[in-house]
């Protein structure tokens, strides 16, 4: 017997020997395993473990082990797994890419959507470990790349995936072939032309003023057709990456806006679907346009904005706030549970969405919220109140002083707790679920750099920041790893008879 299956309980410990002896690893709901033998009291399975080698590298190794359910509560061996063809588990992983976003959606029938990818190699490294054994001849099919907006910390890391193909270390290589590339249509222009600084109002392409308001009218569809002269350096690199993938297999480009839900017909099925809630465009002379956003008020926040705020907006023309505020907003729903992916939404744009929610023209309410803009203080309390999340995930990280923005802000974290619909909401930060082990006094390997830097007190990352969520539409499971491989921070919710999520016991075998 050797059958491919998926785990059908929240967590299962795998042991090297019968009798629950010599712990190997813990696998999660929806993880694929190979069932070697099924007996009355145990499963013999083939899994992959990661072992540290003498040189410090951690390499995958395929081994055979045993799952033996504990007697209390009793879980039948026959209920531990289900065939891959009958998989009902949607997986959404929030990956620590430091200052940036990177998420992976895997549908029950194997479709994969990547949302953003940070600006370093961390997302590529995660994908190489998650989808092992890819090659140029056998790349991993990616159904869709969604770039929420044109800030480098959301898409430059996707170019690192292509770069990983030439990594000398095979386990760090990841070959993929995307089919679709979705974006918000805004392309950043060079910040200087002829050594002169370009004003914010001209940094994002053609504009038109209507009734005293400025609108972006030059929204792009196919990024490969945009002239290099109209792109800043990160965008030009991204265009080159896309051209390489397009040369291997033609890509489908699409600019998304509110209501463009047919874009995800390749993914939607039954009660699993993705709706596009933003950006919200305005018709300007028969052309879809995006309103130029302004600067948020300075000074301390006093209370929270109301859902009934007027549509005056913030004063000024800020390119950075405009490109952030018009992030693609996706609502992924499956049965009774929903996820809201909010890119780098800011206070001004979030108020627009909250007002539309209040009018009943769109639905923001979701159980899981990817918190806007890495936990920035530039947020709308009305927006968080409309979402009313049970689980919130902040994607943030401190790489160096240049990228220190004090994320997540204390005010934002407090608002997430205040406006949750449950007394004890879950609030995760990707950088905080990573684990760093003390290594002691260390030196850099490069002699020249080591001489300049000198010895320093070092730590190594033994568990990467990763918030893993799983749902079949009736149950939601959330967990993280730890430096102690036996430990998991894990929580579960189950829909009651009225369809309301309630805390539930974590099922562990």
TrEMBL record:
Matches recorded under InterPro entries: Competence_DNA_uptake (IPR052159), Metallo-B-lactamas (IPR001279), RibonucZ/Hydroxyglut_hydro (IPR036866)
Family matches, as SUPFAM superfamilies: Metallo-hydrolase/oxidoreductase
Gene3D superfamilies: Ribonuclease Z/Hydroxyacylglutathione hydrolase-like
Chain ranges of the Metallo-beta-lactamase domain: 98-167
The protein, known as: Competence protein
